[in-house]
Design goal:
Layout lengths: L6 E5 L5 E5 L2 H5 L5 H22 L3
Antiparallel strand pairs: 1-2
């Protein structure tokens, strides 16, 4: 199975870096399978953790 996990990394005009992730929960809603939809929720949660860690000042 292929799980589309598109990630976009770009440098803004002010020199900051932006990292964006595809919303897996929204993408998996098109599949009429509760197991796949649940997987989309799990992946979204993991990607949010990654995003939050990139945005932290630790």
């Amino acid at each position: 199975m292929l799980l589309p996990c598109n990630v976009v990394v770009r440098e803004e005009a002010n020199g900051t870096i932006t990292v964006s992730f595809m919303d897996q929960e929204a993408v998996m809603q098109v599949v009429d399978n509760p197991d796949i939809q649940e997987l989309g929720k799990e992946v979204k949660g993991l990607l949010l953790r990654v995003s939050n860690s990139l945005n932290s000042d630790d």
